[in-house]
């Protein structure tokens, strides 16, 4: 066998070494015999090879002849078959473990496999393990972690096949495990053209996180001994910039399905980054949906959701979110901001996108954020316009240049309509003073006429009428924003305005006639319901009375009929400074009516005490359940309520509920049950239009 080794390397000296240096090196090599467990026979052969080399190099004539051979291109040394293993040991010691490992591994493969149980087999197996370990160390020093892992894996497989050196094999396995993070980094940091390596690195990363028990490291795995949570987080921050935004979304969503809450938050950030950087507003909706479902301890999600609302041009909702934040410092900064409140929100959103969202992605260039560019994008405008048509909202076309917010200009015609419309209640918190998107107060003379015509139904009809006026005003304002209309003569604009107002008058007459008929129908229904009430069981009446007296009564399944729940009158909370009992009553009214509606037993009519956004969210939830052919039975009992903060326009309470939710198919088949006791919920109330309303809630604190 020829080995890639010369006599100078074999003994460990340079070609210019003197005879004295050669003899000194020879003696050191003899005294430093490998003690890893080689047989006496192979160590004796090693010493003999060293002695022959020393004799050759210290003899002037022999050395001169050998040096001439080297000059003529001769390389390598020939070893007889009985000295091959000793030669491989010397090759390993000379600093060539990779070459020694490859030759030793080949010598252990058929048909060269030595006799089972022979000293040659034992020495070659040990040599293969030791050279693989040193080869891995060399590759790590060169930052070729994937190659290092390949040497360890091949050696482990070889030892398993040979059935020897169990202790060394375990050490190699531990080395391979500890090498995994560096191996992943090596594979993912390569050029994206090497797709095979990149996919392999992604798969390894996902398996590593899953074995650790998510990003939180909830499982005690084989990686826990050397990669603690702090070390893993540092490693993950180093890995993250080598992943594209789509890869991160896919990874985080999969980890969230497996129970990792932190992965859900990172999925929210990645979806936001994708939506903003690629002008895909639908991704912002998906991000908001994920964030609303997260129960991440210590996370104040309100300003983050508010930023998404702002990017979707919903200024009212964005302002309400920021004012609902649990961060006192943020609210103080917003309220004390010297400029327009919308400007402050835009600055917060811009900084959030730059510092927290659009960073750490391989395919997103983090640059200065320009919100003007976002809103000027044609695809974004079309998407927002479609939303506005569905929700009857005004068009929002702000100018964010240098964070200076210019109010939306309006024509004289819309100003005339504004002067005839009241400040109607949208069930939201009061907007900041710098954002003027609420209506002016309405002259209440027509209200007297409504009272004479509709008697006890005046208030309901009046609110209905105001909403219709608001819809017309919104639609008319959007109509005037049309560039084709603006470009025409003022006379034509006034003509359009007159036609719209004329159509509005016809609509009012139609509404009044329909409302009269509905009143007559309800009067008949009221009479029949009174007679039905008299025949109810005494026990049911007692339950209803107890609920009215004590809103925290726990409902048991089927203990109260849907008609009885509807009979609990919803009352506005108009006290300037309500007590905890008042707030508890309002929350229980919300819980009872919501439970009744989601079970498919009635309609939800809580506009007097609940923000329209929460009502619409509940309606959407019921629509989704109907599509799935299911309904929900929810029983909630208030165990505890504490006041967290209270101002003249905002109240935050912390509530503990005994919560039970059952999901049932329409056929009656039971699907699932969720029981939480206690379920901690933060409820946020806002003062609007002289009454308190439930604005939002955060579950699982």
Detailed description of the structure:
The chain is of the alpha+beta class. The protein folds into 4 domains: 2-188, no CATH class; 243-365, no CATH class; 409-531, no CATH class; 538-699, Roll (Nuclear Transport Factor 2, Chain: A), CATH 3.10.450. It contains 29 helices and 6 strands. It has helices at 7-11, 19-31, 40-58, 60-71, 84-93, 97-107, 119-141, 145-162, 166-188, 195-212, 229-239, 245-257, 261-277, 281-293, 302-311, 315-323, 328-335, 341-357, 371-376, 378-391, 412-418, 445-454, 458-480, 483-486, 490-534, 538-549, 562-566, 580-598, 612-628, and strands at residues 2-3, 77-78, 630-646, 650-665, 670-688, 691-699. The strands form 2 sheets. A 4-stranded antiparallel β-sheet has the order 3-4-5-6, with helices on one face. The protein has a two-stranded antiparallel sheet with strand order 1-2. A hairpin with a 2-residue loop joins strand 5 and strand 6. Helix 15 packs antiparallel against helix 16. The radius of gyration is 39 Å and the shape is elongated.
């Amino acid at each position: 066998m020829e080995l890639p080794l010369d006599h100078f390397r074999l003994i460990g000296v340079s070609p210019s070494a003197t005879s004295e240096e050669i003899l000194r090196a020879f003696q050191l090599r003899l005294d430093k015999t490998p003690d890893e467990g080689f047989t006496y026979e192979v160590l004796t052969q090693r010493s003999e090879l060293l002695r022959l080399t020393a004799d050759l190099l210290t003899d002037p004539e022999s050395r001169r002849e050998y040096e001439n051979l080297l000059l003529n291109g001769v390389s390598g040394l020939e070893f007889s078959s009985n000295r091959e293993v000793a030669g491989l040991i010397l090759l390993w010691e000379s600093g060539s473990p990779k070459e020694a490992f490859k030759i030793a591994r080949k010598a252990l493969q058929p048909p060269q496999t030595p006799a089972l149980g022979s000293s040659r087999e034992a020495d070659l197996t040990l040599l293969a393990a030791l050279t693989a370990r040193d080869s891995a160390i060399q590759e790590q020093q060169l930052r070729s972690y994937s190659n290092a892992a390949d040497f360890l894996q091949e050696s482990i497989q070889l030892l398993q096949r040979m059935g020897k050196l169990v202790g060394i094999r375990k050490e190699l396995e531990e080395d391979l495990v500890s090498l995994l993070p560096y191996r992943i980094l090596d594979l993912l940091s390569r050029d994206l053209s090497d797709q095979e390596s990149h996919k392999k690195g992604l798969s390894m990363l996902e398996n590593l996180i899953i074995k650790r028990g998510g990003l939180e490291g909830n499982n005690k795995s084989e990686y826990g001994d050397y990669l603690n949570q702090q070390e893993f987080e540092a490693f993950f921050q180093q890995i993250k910039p080598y992943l594209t935004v789509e890869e991160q979304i896919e990874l985080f969503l999969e980890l969230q399905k497996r129970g990792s809450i932190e992965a859900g938050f990172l999925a929210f950030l990645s979806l936001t980054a994708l939506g903003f950087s690629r002008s895909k507003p639908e991704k912002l909706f998906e991000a908001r949906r994920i964030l609303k479902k997260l129960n991440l301890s210590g996370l104040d999600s309100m300003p983050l959701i508010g930023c998404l609302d702002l990017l979707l041009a919903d200024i009212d909702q964005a302002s309400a979110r920021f004012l609902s934040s649990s961060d006192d410092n943020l609210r103080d900064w917003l309220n004390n901001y010297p400029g327009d409140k919308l400007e402050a929100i835009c600055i917060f959103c811009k900084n959030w996108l730059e510092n927290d969202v659009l960073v750490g992605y391989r395919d997103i260039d983090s640059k200065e954020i320009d919100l003007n560019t976002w809103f000027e994008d044609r695809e974004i405008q079309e998407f927002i316009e479609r939303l506005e048509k569905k929700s009857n909202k005004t068009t929002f076309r702000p100018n964010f240049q240098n964070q200076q917010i210019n109010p939306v200009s309006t024509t004289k015609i819309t100003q005339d309509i504004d002067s005839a419309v009241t400040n109607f209640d949208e069930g939201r918190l009061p907007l900041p003073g710098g954002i003027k998107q609420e209506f002016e107060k309405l002259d209440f003379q027509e209200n007297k006429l409504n009272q004479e015509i509709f008697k006890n139904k005046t208030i309901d009809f009046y609110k209905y009428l105001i909403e219709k006026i608001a819809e017309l005003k919104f639609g008319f304002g959007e109509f005037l924003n049309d560039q084709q209309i603006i470009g025409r003569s003022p006379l034509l604009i006034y003509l359009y305005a007159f036609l719209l107002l004329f159509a509005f008058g016809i609509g009012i007459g139609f509404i009044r006639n329909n409302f009269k008929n509905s009143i007559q129908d309800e009067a008949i229904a009221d009479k029949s319901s009174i007679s039905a009430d008299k025949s109810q069981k005494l026990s049911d009446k007692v339950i209803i009375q107890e609920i009215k007296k004590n809103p925290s009564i726990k409902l048991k399944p089927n203990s109260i009929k849907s008609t009885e729940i509807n009979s609990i009158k919803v009352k506005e909370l108009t006290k300037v400074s309500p007590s905890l009992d008042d707030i508890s009553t309002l929350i229980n009214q919300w819980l009872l009516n919501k439970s009744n509606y989601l079970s498919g037993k009635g309609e939800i009519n809580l506009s007097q005490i609940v923000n329209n956004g929460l009502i619409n969210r509940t309606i959407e939830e019921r629509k989704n359940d109907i599509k799935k052919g299911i309904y929900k039975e929810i029983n909630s009992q208030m165990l505890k309520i504490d006041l967290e903060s209270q101002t003249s326009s905002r109240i935050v309470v912390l509530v503990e509920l005994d919560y039970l939710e059952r999901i049932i198919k329409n056929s009656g088949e039971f699907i699932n049950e969720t029981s939480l006791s206690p379920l901690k919920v933060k409820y946020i109330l806002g003062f609007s239009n002289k009454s308190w309303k439930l604005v939002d809630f955060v579950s699982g604190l």
